[in-house]
Design a protein that fits this description.
By secondary structure, the protein is an alpha/beta fold. The chain has 16 helices and 14 strands.
């Protein structure tokens, strides 16, 4: 058994968690000096594995997940570092898809402290721990999702072999700048001399900043569709039209890395990786467990079957029959979510939404209203988060259909009472989603079937025994009178992808 001491302060995973809590998740101290000193002390400034850094506004987590899955499908030992987490920091560090064992955390954390890690911030400490874990595990490829920006992000302190730039939009303006150009300039700070970079489609102001930065530092910058093409009819493990942008960017990065490292690349492995990629909170459908009671009062209606009480769920808030969860939290991401739901012919009966106060709340409110239509919007204040917007303030911006509720548990209870069959849409900050998954950890890995558009009976694609699209047995929340061609308009410029 490991014992804590002055030289080795961490004996258990809980000790490391307590240290992270003391550091504070949201404490920022811009500058790469601390990271560079610790990485040098651990000989990690230039790791013995290929590194892909993923920066941008929307789609970083999804792109990172696609790229790691492609690497794993090709037989490479692959590390994945993402943020934030939903329930436990262990979610941030994965090797071949599995979370790093809790027993490894104190061992690695003690080595970081011995290398001067006591000066690191929360995100910096976890970034170093991930890199150290990847080296100890012998990974061949590590995918690092940046936390905020690019120029001063902890992931920029480590050498990279390719930089991926996901769609850039307005977010974190109080830190990165008030305009698309300013935000893009900060993210372009991740570009390195002689290191290839691939980018998703960008607004013209963002692309100009990326090209200027690439020229200035001697990086090569290519648009993803100039480097790779998705295989025909490729199936993606993450739903929504916007995910094709993320998948193509990941494939472009893989193609770049494979060529540089002389790795073989096979279409069947690419297809496998794209189809197996999955991360919670991205157009994630949750179906209420069959044994769980129906709604807060135990019944959906007079004729609904009554399931037996399940003791282990007695302290969990109730769920509607169908719940869809997405981390869209800025105007661009919410527009992409709206289009993705239209693609599945799904309309929310109730929306639960909240976000941090550092967003363009007027633009966000407009997108939430378009997303909700005439559905009620329940707005909890995100708990234990100094950056959270007040539910009352958001509800006032959202208009008469919105109502502030005390917390996530109250929002779930009310949404389930209003629409026991669903679908209920839970969207907004990833920290809001983390609050949900903390209340309902049983849903973290849930992969329910999404909505589907009914094929008209007289369509050539319809089964000879097909039933009318408007059948009373139609899937709850799936509306046959909505078609992907009726997807709502999105802001001018390139498509944007949720994280």
């Amino acid at each position: 058994m490991t014992h804590a001491s002055a030289a080795s302060p961490f004996a258990t995973y809980d000790d490391v968690q307590a240290h992270l809590d003391r550091l504070g998740m949201f404490h920022m101290d811009l500058g790469l000096g601390r990271m560079e000193r610790v990485l040098d002390a651990l000989s990690l400034a230039a790791p013995p594995f290929a590194v892909a850094q993923v920066v941008g506004t929307n789609g970083k987590g999804s792109t990172s997940t696609f790229l790691a899955a492609i690497g794993t499908a090709h037989g490479l030992r692959t590390g994945l570092y993402t943020s934030p987490h939903f329930v436990t920091p262990r979610e941030r560090i994965r090797i071949d898809g599995a979370m790093l064992a809790a027993s490894q955390w104190p061992v690695l954390a003690n080595r970081i402290m011995a290398a001067g890690g006591d000066a690191l911030t929360y995100f910096e400490f976890l970034t170093v721990l991930g890199l150290l874990a990847f080296r100890e595990a012998g990974v061949q490829l590590a995918v690092l999702e940046a936390g905020l920006g690019g120029a001063h992000d902890a992931t920029t302190a480590v050498a990279a072999d390719v930089v991926c730039v996901t769609p850039i939009g307005l977010d974190h303006q109080n830190v990165l700048g008030a305009t698309i150009a300013a935000i893009a300039a900060d993210k372009a700070g991740a570009l390195r001399p002689g290191v290839p970079a691939v980018t998703a489609p960008q607004p013209s102001d963002a692309m100009n900043e990326l090209r200027t930065a690439a020229d200035a530092c001697g990086a090569t910058l290519h648009e993803a569709d100039d480097v790779a093409r998705l295989p025909a009819k490729a199936e993606l493990g993450l739903a929504g039209p916007h995910q094709r942008i993320n998948a193509l960017l990941a494939l472009a990065a893989w193609t770049t890395l494979a060529k540089a490292n002389e790795w073989e690349s096979h279409e069947d492995a690419v297809r496998q990786g794209l189809s197996e990629a999955w991360i919670p909170g991205r157009l994630q459908w949750v179906e209420r467990p069959a044994a769980e009671p129906y709604g807060a009062d135990g019944a959906d209606g007079a004729d609904a079957p009554k399931a037996p009480e399940v003791p282990e769920m007695s302290d969990m808030p109730p769920l509607p029959a169908r719940l869809v969860i997405d981390g869209a939290h800025n105007a661009h991401g919410l527009a992409a979510l709206r289009a993705a739901l239209a693609d599945q012919c799904a309309r929310p009966a109730v929306v639960i939404f909240s976000c941090l106060a550092d967003k363009d709340l007027v633009a966000v409110a407009e997108e939430v209203r378009r997303l909700a239509g005439d559905a009620p919007v329940l707005v909890p204040t995100i708990r234990d988060n100094a950056r959270a917007a007040r539910g009352e303030d958001l509800a006032a911006l959202l208009g008469p259909a919105a109502r502030a509720v005390p917390d996530m548990a109250a929002a779930l209870a009310e949404a389930t009472a209003l629409a026991p069959q669903g679908p209920v849409l839970l969207c907004g900050s990833l920290y809001l989603l983390g609050e949900f998954f903390t209340l309902r950890p049983d849903c973290l890995e849930s992969r329910g079937a999404g909505g589907t558009c009914e094929v008209p009976v007289n369509s050539p694609e319809a089964s000879p025994h097909g039933s009318p699209a408007a059948s009373p047995d139609a899937n709850p929340g799936v509306h046959p009178d909505t078609h992907p061609d009726d997807a709502p308009e999105t802001p001018h410029g390139p498509p944007h992808s949720g994280n």
